[in-house]
Every structure is written in C-alpha cells, then in structure tokens.
C-alpha cells in the first residue's frame, strides 16, 4: 500500500508505477510544512477505503444521536416560547394557564429547562430549551443577568467535574450551545439592560440576537433598527457567533454564509399555526386584517436564516465553538484561579539530538555542582581540623606556661628556703662559737 513516506514518492512529471493494482497515484506534490517535515500530497484515483470516513462518521452519529441545548433570553411576551416551537415545529410548551390577578409573581428570574427527543428522517436529536421567565420584568432589573450567567457557569462546572472523573465514557453535555437574545421591537436602539446582559454573556456563549415580533415594524424601520443595533454592539465590543469559513467551502456556501451574517440581528416572526395566504397556499404565519405574514418566507422575515444558523447548517459548529473556545477559556481561567497552571514545555516538539544535548548539559551542570559541593565540604573540614589543632596548640602553650610558672615558683621558693637555711646556719655557727667560749670561761 502507498504510504506517505519519502522513499515511495516520485516526481510529478513521471507517471509512477503502481505497486498495488487498486492504487493509482495521479499527482504527487511534496510540501514543506513549518517544522521542516516533508508532506506528500497525493490524489489517488483507485480505491483505498478512507473516502468512506464521512459515511462511518455519519453511521456512528446516527447511532449515538445528537443533543443541543439552547437558551432563550428576553422580556416576557416577546415570543420566546412561540419561536422555539416554530423552530422545531412542535408545541414545546403547555398552553399558558390564565393567572389570577392575585397570583403571586416571582421576584427573581427563574430558569426553566424543557427537553424533548425529536426525530427527523431517522436522525435523533435531544433538544433542551432553557427559558428565563421573569427576565426584565421587574422595576429593578439591575442583577437580571446574574442567574443567567450563573446557570451557564454551573453547566460548565458540571462538565468540568464530569471530565475529571475516572470514568468519562458517558459524559452528558448540558452546556448551553447558543443563546437567542430577544430584542424588543421598539425601533429605537438597544436598552441599557440589553447591553448589560449581552456584555455579561458574549464570552461565555454563542450569542445570537434577534428582533422579536418583527411583523410590527415596517421594512424601512427594520433596516434602520438593525443598523443601530449593529452599531451599538460594535461600540460595546459585543461578540456574536459567526459562521466559520473553510477552505473547502464552495462559492455557493460562501454566499450563503455572507447572506446569513448580513441579516444579523435576525428580524423574526413566530407562529405555530397555519394560515391561508391570499393566493390560496397554506403556510405557517400570522393573519392580520390587511394580510398574512409568513414565517417561512424570506421576503417576510429572517426566520429561515435563523433556522439555518441554529439548526439546519451550523448546529455542529455552535457546539464545536462552545467546546473548543468558550468552555476552554472558562476552564483554563477557572483552573488558573485554582493555581493549576499549564506546563507549556510538555507540548514542545522534541528533537532527539537537541534533547540529548540538553540532557548532557544538565548532567554536566550536575557534576560541576557536586564537585563544588564536595570541595566546599573538604575545605570546611580542613578549616575545622586546623582550628582544632590551633586550639590544642594554644592549650599546650598555656599548660607549658603554667608548668613553667609553677616550676619557677617552686624554684624561687626553694631558693628562698635555701637562703633562709643558709642564713640560719651562719647564725647557729656564731652562737655555737660563743657558747663554746663561755664553757671555757667557766671551766
Ligand atoms: N405579533 C407577533 N406576536 C407574537 C410573535 N410571536 C409570539 N407572539 C405572541 O406574543 C405572545 C407572547 O408569546 P410567548 O411565546 O408566550 O412569549 P414569551 O413570554 O416570550 O415566551 C403570544 O400571544 C404570541 O402569540 C410574533 O412574532 N409576532
Ligand atoms: Mg415563554
């Protein structure tokens, strides 16, 4: 089989001979990548089998099913529940129960999550919609963003914890993959609350802003409103989710991506019921005395563009961006805060010769250090010995001096005694003489 090694490559002007009948090499290019490694680029005209990879991937994905978690944020009554039901074409929420005027109104933003298992042409999707009822409904909405951000972070934390467990086989991804932010169709500009919340959210989630209930605005109003919203978002440096661009994208795909991005914030209309259009068609939409607004009509609203971004074309990219960028940033910031920092050297590419040289230098340095230490210990010991010798020498001198002094003293004493004795003897002899004289006188 052809392997991308240097020995098996032939220059592109020569037709190489195939060693395997089923593998025909059409063109051969040798590229040099940044690290100096040669990469052989070949197009095979025969069949090896790896072109089946997308099919294998497809089969596996179908087997495992998909999951997608979307959060909707916006004031009550902007059509959040209606839009979710419109997007996934089914009533996700039970009909609203009439509330008695005396019914207690919750005082904070509640977080509600509803999951549904959907199936379309054999593809299974577990959809979870996280709703934020109560958002923006209070006199003081100062901390309205807090429970929302906390919920998003709790989901990241749960994932991080699951990843750190010994058994990571069945991690359920409950992270929020996209937030649809509903902007009230005022026609003016973003409210301070919108800016505050989006600022808190944009680095943690894929943010997709929409103009709610856009059927109440005229086309010109929508164009002007969108321009103002985009300017506000730019000014406050709020990042929105962008459709990624790939080298392999066809011109058509590129155009589609540009078209989707040009419509942000999407002006949307939600409707779950069907109406009859003036030309007799039946379509999902809203009927007014002056006509019909169709949900699935590009001329009436941007619903289809939102669906393309969120569901039809870029759901996987939303999940990928959540995992690889948003979660990764959160995770590393969290671990850094806990004092676990990354040892970058672990990821260095290793050149064996350089590595060997590094190790040799390290060994050499270690030897020198040991030698220096040993010399120091030796010198210390010598100094100690010298000190001890000097001390005993001093002691000997002292003893010698002491002995000499005591001998001198003894000698002096003896001499004194001797002198004394001698003087005593002189005295005695004169006395003896005189005594002898006396006897002679008496006799
Ligand atoms: N005009 C208009 N009304 C809508 C639209 N979407 C929903 N509504 C209506 O707005 C009301 C509140 O909708 P709901 O989905 O419950 O809003 P939520 O509180 O944000 O979940 C309902 O009466 C809907 O029929 C829309 O796009 N245009
Ligand atoms: Mg609702």
UniProtKB/TrEMBL annotation:
Its main location: other. Residues 1-21, 423-443 are annotated as: Disordered. Keywords: GTP-binding, Nucleotide-binding. InterPro entries: G_SEPTIN_dom, P-loop_NTPase, Septin. Residues 1-15 have a biased composition (Polar residues). It comes from the Eukaryota. Residues 64-337 form the Septin-type G domain. It is found in: Bud neck. One of its GO terms (molecular function) is phosphatidylinositol-4-phosphate binding. The keyword Lipid metabolism does not apply. Belongs to the TRAFAC class TrmE-Era-EngA-EngB-Septin-like GTPase superfamily. Septin GTPase family. This is Septin-type G domain-containing protein. It comes from Lipomyces starkeyi NRRL Y-11557. The lineage of its organism: Eukaryota, Fungi, Dikarya, Ascomycota, Saccharomycotina.
């Amino acid at each position: 089989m052809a392997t991308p090694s240097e020995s098996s490559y032939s220059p592109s002007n020569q037709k190489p001979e195939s060693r395997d009948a089923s593998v025909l090499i059409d063109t051969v290019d040798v590229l040099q990548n940044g690290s100096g490694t040669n990469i052989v680029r070949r197009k095979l005209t025969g069949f090896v089998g790896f072109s089946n990879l997308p099919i294998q991937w497809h089969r596996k994905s179908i087997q495992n099913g998909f999951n997608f978690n979307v959060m909707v944020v916006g004031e009550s009554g902007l059509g959040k529940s209606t839009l979710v039901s419109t997007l996934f074409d089914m009533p996700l929420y039970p009909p609203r129960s009439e509330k008695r005027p005396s019914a207690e109104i919750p005082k904070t933003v509640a977080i509600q999550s509803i999951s549904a298992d959907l199936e379309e042409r054999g593809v299974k999707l577990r959809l979870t919609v996280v709703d934020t009822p109560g958002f923006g409904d209070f006199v003081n909405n100062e901390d309205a963003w807090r429970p929302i951000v906390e919920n998003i972070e709790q989901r990241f934390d749960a994932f991080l914890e699951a990843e750190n467990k010994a058994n990571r086989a069945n991690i359920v991804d409950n992270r929020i993959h996209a937030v649809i932010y509903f902007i009230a169709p005022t026609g003016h500009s973003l409210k301070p609350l919108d800016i505050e919340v989006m600022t808190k959210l944009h680095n943690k989630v894929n943010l997709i802003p929409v103009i709610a209930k856009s059927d109440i605005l005229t086309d010109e109003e929508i164009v002007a409103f969108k321009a103002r919203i985009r300017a506000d978002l730019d000014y406050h440096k709020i990042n929105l989710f962008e459709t990624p661009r790939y080298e392999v994208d066809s011109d058509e795909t590129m155009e589609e991506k540009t078209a989707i991005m040009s419509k942000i914030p999407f002006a949307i209309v939600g409707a779950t019921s069907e109406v009859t259009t003036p030309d007799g068609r039946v379509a999902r939409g809203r009927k007014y005395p002056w006509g019909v607004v169709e949900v699935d009509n590009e001329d009436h609203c941007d619903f289809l563009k939102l669906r393309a971004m969120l569901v039809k074309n870029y759901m996987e990219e939303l999940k990928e961006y959540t995992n690889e960028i948003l979660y990764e940033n959160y995770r590393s910031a969290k671990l850094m805060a806990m004092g676990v920092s990354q040892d970058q050297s672990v990821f260095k590419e290793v050149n064996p010769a350089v590595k060997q040289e590094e190790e040799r230098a390290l060994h050499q340095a270690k030897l020198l250090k040991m030698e220096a230490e040993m010399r120091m210990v030796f010198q210390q010991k010598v100094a100690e010995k010298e000190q001890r010798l000097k001390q005993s020498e001093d002691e000997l001198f002292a003893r010698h001096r002491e002995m000499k002094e005591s001998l001198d003293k003894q000698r002096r004493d003896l001499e004194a005694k001797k002198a004394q004795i001698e003087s005593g003897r002189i005295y005695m002899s004169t006395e003896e003489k005189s005594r002898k004289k006396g006897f002679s006188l008496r006799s």
